Amino acid sequence: xxxxxxxxxxxxxxxxxxxxxxxxxxxxxxxxxxxxxxxxxxxxxxxxxxxxxxxxxxxxxxxxxxxxxxxxxxxxxxxxxxxxxxxxxxxxxxxxxxxxxxxxxxxxxxxxxxxxxxxxxxxxxxxxxxxxxxxxxxxxxxxxxxxxxxxxxxxxxxxxxxxxxxxxxxxxxxxxxxxxxxxxxxxxxxxxxxxxxxxxxxxxxxxxxxxxxxxxxxxxxxxxxxxxxxxxxxxxxxxxxxxxxxxxxxxxxxxxxxxxxxxxxxxxxxxxxxxxxxxxxxxxxxxxxxxxxxxxxxxxxxxxxxxxxxxxxxxxxxxxxxxxxxxxxxxxxxxxxxxxxxxxxxxxxxxxxxxxxxxxxxxxxxxxxxxxxxxxxxxx
Length: 380
What we know:
The protein is of the alpha/beta class. The protein has 15 helices and 12 strands. It has helices spanning 8-13, 57-69, 81-89, 106-119, 131-138, 161-170, 183-186, 189-192, 223-235, 241-251, 254-273, 292-298, 315-324, 344-347, 367-378, and strands spanning 74-78, 97-101, 122-126, 145-149, 174-178, 196-200, 214-218, 278-282, 306-311, 329-330, 340-343, 357-361. The chain has a 7-stranded mixed β-sheet, with helices on both faces. Strands 8-9-12-11-10 form a 5-stranded mixed β-sheet.
């Protein structure tokens, strides 16, 4: 069978490819070597492996699976999602221009602002979920990169990727999409028109809160992509073989995990939406969400596993609710098998986050148990 014709569930279950013929193992081996031998004529024993910074078999295997999942031409793994973002933005020349979605993951915004200041790069921030506003900013002049995040964290706004591509094209920019909160199971931005998709593989792609990683997947092999490839090989922002092997292992259950998490999340969103101690729920799976129809189109398998909700009352009420939760761990991250809750205002009070907002990442536990935990924490 042609690997490219297989469904995501099959690609993931078979993650790592063929059986290891040397041992007969049905999972790929880990090769921890930092350097690789040559023969008497000084030719590499394996033409693909010279030095571990750019060359490792299991890293390439994981990249191959991710490229197939996103229907991309190639993928590159990095030691974190932020390292992947940095690799892309380092292709922007000094004096260039980037257009960045506002209200996204704070560390992305912070790093891009600081980077642009150092490099004298013009940065325009805009609510990219408003396609008209994004088009207007793009129309102001040439740009190098348009960066969007959908669904956004923690506001859960959904950006129309196809419309964003048209806006980016109008100013000569490539469109890059952070699709971490969707996963390759729910959205494939490259199929919708994006040029590059980024995931923090630390999150749902790994899914077990024990591996740091990031990935870029490109739609086509371009000069910009070559620059990223060369920069990673030279600068050394690589994922190690052990982490890549763990990532492959985690990906084998990605489709199953996402299916369960999406099902749980919709049940929990409806529960919270009807709770007397909750002001509002930010989740694109709810009919009341302003981009609900767009989410149904871009995320046909479900609206994801991340949501925010505003507790009635004040900051102390929200903190009390988070403090009473017993199944939702109070921790920063998302996409793991365990459910998490975070009081975002404590983490980033300077960004305008309401002090009553709680962000939850829904895991694979029983939905009834999770709703019971939320109910007792909020007050039935």
